[in-house]
Design brief:
The protein has 13 helices and eleven strands. The chain is α/β, with parallel strands linked by helices and 431 residues long.
Length: 431
């Protein structure tokens, strides 16, 4: 969830602002949290891959795009075996992993219709013959202003008194909104017992307020509850820090807005298909005014880690491939040395497809697009996500493991490549 800073807020720890959860008792202390994910196990996925991961980025109101992507995956018979998210992506992940397969789309629809159920008088005012990009931009800004003033049903409500009037150390002093409504929504729509005992692995990321370190909560090692999802989306100063296991956590997007690093750290040795669903595009046009500067700044801030993680992984796989080729030519005595054994242990026999689906904002969406929770915007985002996923899945190579050992292929059929007008050129690298 992304909201603009409205005014400076006292960010000192507030013991009273604690959203305690039974699951937090099972959380490891901050100093003991793992830097790497536990290896994954092979599971049926409806594809030739041993593992299928769905990674959902943060992006507030644009998160309905991810619901549309998941709907298209289910229509294609693709079943994620590991789902991980940040911020609004964590909420979508919880609804997916915390429900039976046949109920997931309906529960996602319930959530998104609830948070977009507020009054939308601007739609009637600007509809019909006056429906164009300019009026859509004005309507979006007005809807976003309504979100800032009144909150979002089933998600968050304004604090009263506001933090500028609240004494330091009190519950209201460190955030503009209460997310008590989100806890109720999660408890209604998510079966946390299913997350903790079901077959789909679940991970969410947050940042420790005290240490500044990134932390992942993973159903492989943690007992997941509402607090973990709320922590992943607690973006200051809009939302207060969430307490888990004696530590306070903020939105994971403050450090990294993609769970890709966490998944790749597992070193599972499984042929893996990864759907990376991003709500912020790393590529964009040169801004022409301050409003476009604000939009482009957000896009770069919240998207940059995705491509850097992908590029670093591809380079690592190239080095692993080179070592494996050398290992096959080594004399037995050299291959038996501690150095060669160390490098052999770091090799990865698996192959990977990384499929990127990046939401491309229409021109009328401005800097408030991540907190414009209007019904029309939600429906547009959902439809765009479904259509983009169906377009991507129409390319058969997406669901086909790349040839060769230690091979990684990266596909993006949506983002225009430099020097091309069309957006259907895949970005692919197979060592």
């Amino acid at each position: 969830m992304r909201l603009p800073p409205i005014a400076p807020a006292d960010l000192s720890p507030a013991p009273q602002d604690v959203r305690k959860d039974a699951a937090s008792k099972a959380a490891a202390p901050a100093k003991n949290r793992r830097a790497k994910a536990q290896p994954e196990h092979a599971k049926p996925s409806g594809t030739p891959f041993e593992s299928v991961a769905l990674l959902l980025q943060g992006g507030g109101a644009m998160g309905a795009y991810q619901a549309g992507v998941y709907e298209a995956l289910t229509e294609a018979g693709v079943e994620p075996t590991w789902i991980a998210g940040i911020s609004i992506g964590a909420i979508n992940c919880a609804i997916i992993a915390g429900n039976k397969p046949e109920d997931r789309i309906a529960k996602l629809r319930t959530f998104w219709e609830r948070v977009s159920a507020g009054p939308d008088p601007w739609l009637k005012l600007w509809g019909g013959p006056f429906d164009n990009d300019w009026t859509r931009e004005i309507a979006g800004q007005l809807a976003a202003a309504g979100t800032m003033a009144g909150g979002v049903a089933g998600f968050f409500t304004p604090r009263f008194p506001p933090p500028v009037w609240a004494p330091p150390g009190t519950e209201n002093a460190t955030s503009w909104y209460s997310t008590a409504a989100l806890r109720e929504t999660l408890e209604e729509l998510v079966d946390f017992d299913r997350i903790n005992t079901g077959g789909m692995r679940f991970s969410v990321g947050a940042v420790n307020v005290r240490t500044g370190n990134f932390a992942y909560f993973d159903s492989e090692t943690d007992t997941i509850g509402p607090a973990h999802i709320m922590a992943s989306g607690a973006l200051p100063p809009a939302f207060g820090a969430v307490e888990i296991g004696g530590e306070y956590y903020w939105d994971g997007g403050l450090v990294s807005n993609t769970p890709l690093d966490w998944l790749l750290s597992a070193r599972s040795g499984l042929d893996t298909l990864i759907f990376q669903v991003d709500l912020w595009s790393a590529r964009g046009e040169l801004p022409r005014d301050l409003a476009e500067v604000a939009v482009r700044m957000k896009e770069i801030q919240y998207s940059s880690r995705t491509r850097s993680a992908t590029d670093a992984f591809r380079q690592l796989q190239k080095m692993r491939t080179a070592f494996n080729e050398l290992l096959a030519q080594m004399p037995p005595a050299l291959a038996a040395t501690p150095q060669a054994k160390l490098l052999a242990a770091a090799s990865d026999p698996a192959v990977y497809n990384i499929v990127q689906l990046v939401y491309r904002s229409p021109t009328y969406e401005g800097q408030a697009k991540d907190y414009e929770f209007s019904r029309r915007a939600m429906e547009d985002h959902w439809r765009d996500g479904r259509n983009d996923a169906l377009k991507t899945l129409s390319h058969p190579e997406v669901l086909r493991p790349p040839a060769g050992i230690n091979s990684v292929a990266v596909y993006d059929f949506l983002t225009p490549s430099p020097g091309h007008n069309a957006g259907l050129q895949p970005e692919k690298d197979t060592p």
